[in-house]
Amino acid sequence: MRSLEVENLTVSVEGKTILNNLSLNLPKGEVHAIMGPNGSGKSTLAKALAGHEHYTVSSGAVLMDGENLLDLEVDQRARAGLFMAFQYPVEIPGVSIANFIRAALKARQGEEDSFDALAYYRRLYAEMDRLGIDRKFTGRSVNEGFSGGEKKRCEILQMAMLEPKYCVLDETDSGLDIDALKIVAAGVNHMRGEDRGILVITHYQRLLNHIVPDYVHVIVDGRIVKSGDKSLAVEVEERGYDWIKEEMAAGV
Amino acid sequence: MSPVTTVNRESELLTESVFEQFQGRHPDLPPWLLQQKRQSWMEYRSLPLPNRKMESWRFSNVRGLGVGPFGLANAINGRSRAALAARSQDPGSYAGRLVFGNDDLLENSPLSRELTEKGVIFEPLQTAFSKHSGILEEFYMAQKSDLGSEKFAALHTALNRNGTLLYVPENVEIRLPLVSRHWAISENAAVFPHTLVIARDRARVVFVDVYSSSEASSRQFACAVSTLYAGAGAEVEYHHVQNWSERSLSFNTLTAIAHRDSRIRAFGMNLGSKFSRNEGHSIIEGPGCNAELYSLSLSHLDQEMDQRTRQTHRAPHARSNLLFKNALLDSSKTIFSGLIKVDKSAQQTDAYQTNRNLLLSPKAEANSLPGLEILANDVKCSHGATTGQLDENQLFYFLARGIGKRAAQQLLVFGFFEEVLEKIDNPELAEYHRRLVHEKFRNS
């Protein structure tokens, strides 16, 4: 019950099958990494979990702590405790970061619950400080005119503020220089804990030097074809993906 | 609350009997006013109904502007008076407040003695017509409407009988706002709110007009006129809240006349009516002045908001600015048509006109017709219109954070409106505008 269970998930986009009977179990307290070549279905998994309407689930199930995630709308999934950090965060002109995160938190409250604005800003500033985000950013429109690194840090800031049960980081390392990568990784590591499962989707092993996963899964052609510990990531980095494909072809 | 009066169905707006009925009910009007009303009624009857071939009615849904089921409203009873007075607390602190229901005075919270002694007049028109006939003969409906609603301005002149006269003598400054609240009460009632603000040289004043219906489900016809005069060096800030019930048909004409070195700022908030027509005209009469027209509109369902503006420059070295922002939900529609008109003598004019629309639904429709007519050769003028929308990637981003669609739209609208709201110096008034937007979202 304390896990995000993906069972035989098949997902298509515009009639083309991208994920093919994919299964994965992410228990709370663990960090799993998913690696795979371009077009293998990594980002599709993230978006299908979040509930993007372009991604059609034709079979399979996703249970979040026993609850059927696929029955929920996008915003319901988020409020139930799922968080996806976007590969390409979206710009929202006219809506400040502070107001955006506050709205997300309020959406998780009941209509009549009061909102402690002072405590909110105290927490927001503490998390921003930790992520090296200038406090002036609270008044800036979400992601508008941000550098790639600033956008990714802003994703992690939202993740920290919303305290999700399960986090899916979709290629959070893309477009980051090494300094920004370290800051983002530290932010993610800070959120590791018994009550949270984290799924790190990445193309490169580089990020996994800083967020050390408990398990690594390799995805090829929409299926997890190999799982192992963190050494698998190193092996993939050194040898590429072809040897795994060859193993598959040979039926190993 | 249930309707407290019924309207005589025979007294349709376009029938001759309405004016006879009006005269019969108000036998004590001063002769000069009665004369003006008779003339206006004739004018109303002779002017054609708007049609879309008229430039000033392009894009507008003119159906339903003809014969209506509307009629003169009857007086309301004591219990309703008290209930409405209790609902008239917004926007907060005031220096004086008048509350009207179906054009009858319900409550009069007069000025302090200090202000009265300085010569400030804050008087319901029903008594001002005779008490201050000198001022009214000079200023009342003195500025002819010519932005398209001439017919309805004539109708207003014929049937208006109440509203507010605010007269602020030279050098008098009133810090707190003056408020007039107009309620429309019974089904099919026709109301004609009027506001006349005269700020003499170097006077300073803030005036707030709030229009609303006692019941959301009722339907009325509202035809309002407001006129602002700013004398030399005067400062006038005006707020206008149009929040009639969403079955109503409304017209509103604002004229702001700025004399030498004066400053006028007008803020409109449009939320109500099924069809609303807003005409705003700033007139620069003297050099060195600054006239600013701001408007925020939030339309939803099948509401239509039709806005026509003009910035007239008749004197040199003056500035005018206009910013109209429309946020559209559902299948609502807005029209903005504006003209900057600079006379030959108005050299060194700075005039700006901007219309921004935020489409929050693929079915919403925003029309924009900005225009310039410049006869002077040494001016800085610009006009522009932009339309933005909530695209599906943005919506997905909100949803992925647990923020539902309506809440996302609300956040975007607040962000969009803030550019205007932050120009309001009085925090209580700015907060009042925000609260109105919240309420509209809560009820939508």
Note down, in words, how this protein is organized.
The complex is a heterodimer of chains A (252) and B (444). Chain A contains eight helices and twelve strands. With 252 residues, chain A is of the alpha/beta class. Chain A has a single domain, classed as P-loop containing nucleotide triphosphate hydrolases (Rossmann fold), CATH 3.40.50. In chain A, the strands form three sheets. A six-stranded mixed β-sheet of chain A has the order 6-9-10-3-11-12, sandwiched between helices. The mean pLDDT of chain A is 93. In chain B, strands 1, 4, 5, 7, 8, 10, 12, 14, 16, 18 and 20 form an eleven-stranded mixed β-sheet that branches. A ten-stranded mixed β-sheet of chain B has the order 3-2-6-9-11-13-15-17-19-21, with helices on one face. In chain B, helix 2 runs antiparallel to helix 7 and helix 9 runs antiparallel to helix 10. Classes of the chains: A alpha/beta (252), B alpha/beta (444). Chains A and B meet through helix 2, strand 7 and helix 3 of A and helix 8 and helix 9 of B.
| Tally of separate helices of chain A | 8
Overall body shape of chain B: globular
The general outline of chain A is: globular
In helices, the fraction of residues of chain A equals 25-40%
Distance between the termini of chain B: 20 Å
The CATH architecture assignment of chain A turns out to be 3-Layer(aba) Sandwich
Number of strands of chain B: 21
Average pLDDT, all residues of chain B: 92
The level of helicity of chain B is 10-25%
